[in-house]
Amino acid sequence: MIPFYLLNIDHASYSRFEKQPVGGWDVWLNVINVEADHGASEAALFSAFYGETPDRDIGRWREMAVFSSCVLQPLEWAGLLIHTEDKAEGRNNRHWFKTPLWRTALKLDTDEMLAPIQVQ
User: Which CATH architecture does the domain made up of 2-111 adopt?
Assistant: First the structure.
């Protein structure tokens, strides 16, 4: 069900911006696999795909919102990512983490780059 939901549903159709972010699931999943292995901020994930953005660059907020609603949120709804929020300097900052389901459900090209999970 997860592959169908991620790959075949138009996630922009329920976004208020009705715009797709540039990219595709093969790249998004492999990069997020590495970047969010120990957690990553939403801004850091966005920057990994679309370049650095200054901390106070409000001009790209719409692009980041599209990325979040079309990539990160569907991954969360599928149970593959979770996020935490903290409020700093009047802004909500989200940090994204892979769930245990991520490694179970997905086999990606970048898996070899990750340290094995240590069970104690």
Answer: Orthogonal Bundle (1.10)
